[in-house]
Amino acid sequence: xxxxxxxxxxxxxxxxxxxxxxxxxxxxxxxxxxxxxxxxxxxxxxxxxxxxxxxxxxxxxxxxxxxxxxxxxxxxxxxxxxxxxxxxxxxxxxxxxxxxxxxxxxxxxxxxxxxxxxxxxxxxxxxxxxxxxxxxxxxxxxxxxxxxxxxxxxxxxxxxxxxxxxxxxxxxxxxxxxxxxxxxxxxxxxxxxxxxxxxxxxxxxxxxxxxxxxxxxxxxxxxxxxxxxxxxxxxxxxxxxxxxxxxxxxxxxxxxxxxxxxxxxxxxxxxxxxxxxxxxxxxxxxxxxxxxxxxxxxxxxxxxxxxxxxxxxxxxxxxxxxxxxxxxxxxxxxxxxxxxxxxxxxxxxxxxxxxxxxxxxxxxxxxxxxxxxxxxxxxxxxxxxxxxxxxxxxxxxxxxxxxxxxxxxxxxxxxxxxxxxxxxxxxxxxxxxxxxxxxxxxxxxxxxxxxxxxxxxxxxxxxxxxxxxxx
Length: 471
Ligand code: SF4
Ligand code: SF4
Fold this sequence. Notes:
This protein is mainly alpha-helical. Helix content is 43%, strand content 6%.
């Protein structure tokens, strides 16, 4: 059909790809850092070039080790591979699907099962970043549709609702007892009836913390970035991380919004749901707080992989200006920070022996950004602990993907590839580690086991406590 589409005013900054075709692949990675929306381009500009990075050798249609590509692995259908997504997006931008290509069935179907694992960005030989391409496609879809569906708005706005979530824990409890409620929620909101709902803690972490701490003389200063999930759902993780860092002798500043303002958030839930302007607003608020710390060269330590790594990755595409580069250099996961300090012979953690085994599931973004060796190194510091990594791809939950009614079955299939059977087969006293909130949710739903964060296991070792229940 090949009707030409209207020029595309992209919402993300794709300028890093502008030179693709003239200078080759090595020119990627240098984002403009200016305004996010580039000039409307009839051919899609840098966005189209980012899709054209796919060279069609179909490494994404293999099923070896690694993360890539979970949707192809479970469906065995090339229509759910990175390659097909890239080709379909190129066709859409070439005008093959009519005037509103982002509403086309072809593009929706191709993008449907992408779980934004970033496996392609790290494992595809050409580094196709389908997770980011999908975000732009989703944002363009909402624009052409003229609205954002209720469910996507709900998921995206999790950081806004988070402080009130504990008032709705009864809904989750009622859903378990009265399946009719779960069924109504499924048909009304599209939230899978078979899923448990996340449960908020009675008390969040941030509000119990002092607004500022004085640096102890001679102590190194660090900043702890507590994401929405660690703050409201699992404050014990943030507490454990704080205790670990303090035990190692650091002065810990906790990143906080100004008094009276809503808690900080990286913007991940907005971005994943295609609400790019809202993601940019959240990122700007966070930057305002963190940039002065980054300017002083302090490490900004995060706990939730997809939140912290957004500062090193997608923030470059949000058009947030020059402050991003410095923050990206400072942003580090807890395991990366501890491993780095250990290598520099600056880490003094009085860890006591733990006997037995720990099984570790890596979050997709930890794998894609090479953080798993750091997990191994830090856990290797605990005397007596046998550390085993689960050879897993995506857990299948992937943010809100596994909560969505139409994706529940595929989400469970992804979990059943290796993660869930391995967890089910583990001895009851085996410790489980999954640093991602949604990975822990999937393990809870799919294997009826509780996994913890690395910080909690380190705190166990600091206290010399062996019981799993002590997390
Ligand atoms: S997405 Fe990457 S691995 Fe797949 S065909 Fe394209 S270039 Fe090859
Ligand atoms: S982000 Fe993950 S699921 Fe999406 S195309 Fe890339 S490898 Fe596949």
